Amino acid sequence: MGGHVESLRVHDVRRASGGGGSVVVATRGLRKQEILCRRPCEGVLASAADRVDTAGTARYLFRPICGSRGTNTITNFLARTQPNPNVPRLVMGCLRSIWLVGLFEERLPITVIVAAAGGCRRCFRA
């Protein structure tokens, strides 16, 4: 979610123990959780964290030079990012929907999808 991305700091991204390239992201706020990064994104996320990392500082991963965080930071960023007129405008809600559809197409169990999406597991008990 946008709020998770806006508040993400470099030290919230870490490689999982045991190797294998797995990357874990610890989110902040009321809905704190640890999220295992999807394989296609592991390298990009870990590389971004390594590039921005400055020992002893808590740098933001998204827009690290900007010290202030406002509402709709991600939405506003996406609204200004349209590299090609033939590419549809990126919208956070649509990106989340596409992500969820991808999980369903991979035939992941509904309980895993609900947990990954931040939903309530009690709602899907058998």
Q: Please mark out the parts with pLDDT under 50 across 5 or more consecutive residues, or reply none.
A: none
Number of helices: 5
Estimated radius of gyration: 16 Å
Derived from helix and strand composition plus strand pairing, the structural class reads: mainly alpha
Largest sheet: 3 strands, antiparallel
What's the end-to-end separation, in Å? 28 Å
**What characteristic shape results from the CA principal axes?**
globular
Helix-strand string: HEEEHHHH
Short description:
The protein is mainly alpha-helical and 126 residues long. The chain has helices at residues 2-7, 39-52, 73-80, 92-105, 110-116, and strands at 13-15, 23-26, 34-36.
Report on the structure:
This protein has 126 residues and is mainly α. Helices cover 39% and strands 8% of the residues. It contains 5 helices and 3 strands. The chain has helices spanning 2-7, 39-52, 73-80, 92-105, 110-116, and strands at 13-15, 23-26, 34-36. The chain has a 3-stranded antiparallel beta sheet with strand order 1-2-3, with helices on one face. The longest helix has 14 residues, at 39-52. The protein is globular.
List the helices and strands and how they pair.
Elements: H1 2-7, E1 13-15, E2 23-26, E3 34-36, H2 39-52, H3 73-80, H4 92-105, H5 110-116
Antiparallel strand pairs: 1-2, 2-3
Question: What are the main properties of this structure?
Answer:
126 residues, three-stranded antiparallel beta sheet, 5 helices
